[in-house]
Prior knowledge:
Blueprint: H1 2-11, H2 13-36, H3 57-66, H4 70-80, H5 84-89, H6 92-97, H7 102-135, E1 141-142, E2 148-149, H8 151-168, H9 170-180, H10 186-204, H11 235-261
Antiparallel strand pairs: 1-2
Helix pairs in contact: 1-7, 2-3, 2-4, 2-7, 3-7, 3-8, 4-7, 4-9, 4-10, 7-8, 7-9, 7-11, 9-10, 9-11
Amino acid sequence: MLRSELGLTFGRMRTRGLLLVVAAIPALLALAVRLSGGPDGGHGPTFLDQVSRNGVFAALAGLTVVIPFFLPLAVSVVAGDTIAGEASQGTLRYLLVRPVGRTRLILSKFVTAVVFCLVSALAVALTGLLVGWALFPVGSVVTLSGTTIGAWDGIYRSLGAATLVGASMIGLVSIGVLISTFTESPVGAIAATAGIAILSQILGAIPQLESIHFLLFTQEWMSFGDLMRTPVMWDNIIENLILQACWTSVFLLAAWARMTTRDVLG
């Protein structure tokens, strides 16, 4: 069933369009830097002022730009459509009439959405690396700690950062899957999921709410930048992964409970 879900999801023009949009962002950033010379040091998104010096940073700048809005929106589209999309098309009942357990259905939908997160983040990084390599010199990388690492080490770390960014979206996926079990409107589920992601980021930007920041699933989304330090600073990265695991365990369990008690066959 998982193979079928993966084929169905990635075979849709909508999914391919989402991947194309997020992958185009680092290419457009690199082209803009090439034409304009890029911002001065310390200005613009993190890593963007380094792109003209080393094309490896095009991947990292792209990840920085897509995280706040573009990637969460793409993930919300896929996660919000998991169950609500089947219900709206009238295929949910058909799926459950077949010998497919509800637990298996939920897990297949969830894993498919997680795979999309990883693929989309890696698409951003790979496009950034390719375009950065084509437009700018690629050599030794100066890390955020001021030390120098080899070009291949920088590339490997960029791909690791993309994997971490994809993993950072897993909490949002579980929220989207839960919301999707409560409605037959994919648009409503998508909007609610994206709205929660935006709300969490807004709450995380309010200093007066600092006491709850550690609970927000978006709080450590930018921790991937710590991979570009020497030595790598793991504290925020581990905190991010723990946050995603906690949010996923709660909301995926809630989605399972909702799905196993939902009357869709009556």
